[in-house]
Amino acid sequence: MYILRVYPQPPPDHSRSLQLLASFFQAAGNIIPLYYLTTYSVYVLGFSPTMASMLLAVNNGVNSVSRVTMGLIADYAGRQNTLVGCVRSDIPSSYN
Predict the structure, then answer these.
(1) Which of 2, 9, 19, 76 is 20 to 30 A (C-alpha) from 36?
(2) Can you tell me the distance from the alpha carbon of 55 to that of 38, in angstroms, rounded to the nearest whole number?
(3) pTM assigned to the model
(4) What does each C-alpha distance from 45 to 16, 21, 23, 36 come to in angstroms?
(5) Per-residue pLDDT of the chain (96 residues; tens, 9 = 90+)
(6) Residue 64 class from Cβ within 10 Å (0-12 exposed, 13-18 middle, 19+ buried)?
(7) Number of Cβ atoms within 10 Å of the Cβ of 20
């Protein structure tokens, strides 16, 4: 005969769900402005449509190169050290 024992369940851990939600918002925050970059460049900054498209292409190219470069630096120096270095290098630009 089997005895059914009921053990109290620990409270649910929502850290994975919150991290997934935060990752979604972070990715949306990086992608959504790129959709409006060409429109903003044409109507607000006065660029030609060709120049606005070139601006988007250059932005994506620099993003691709910098992601690979940061990955290589992270392989050498460590992910956390690379993140701290990037944040520290960005601090002076936030005071302009």
Answers:
(1) 19
(2) 8
(3) 0.61
(4) 41, 34, 31, 12
(5) 667 777 777 667 788 888 888 888 988 888 878 888 899 999 999 999 999 999 999 999 999 999 999 999 999 999 999 999 988 988 888 786
(6) exposed
(7) 9
Rounded to 5 degrees, what angle do the CA atoms 86, 91, 94 make?
125
DSSP 7: P
Joined tokens for residue 65: 């190169």
In this structure, what token pair is assigned to residue 45? 């900054």
Give, in order, the Cα–Cα distances in Å from 94 to each of 19, 32, 34, 84.
26, 21, 21, 15
42/60 Cα distance (integer angstroms): 18
Contact at 8 Å (CB) between 45 and 53?
no
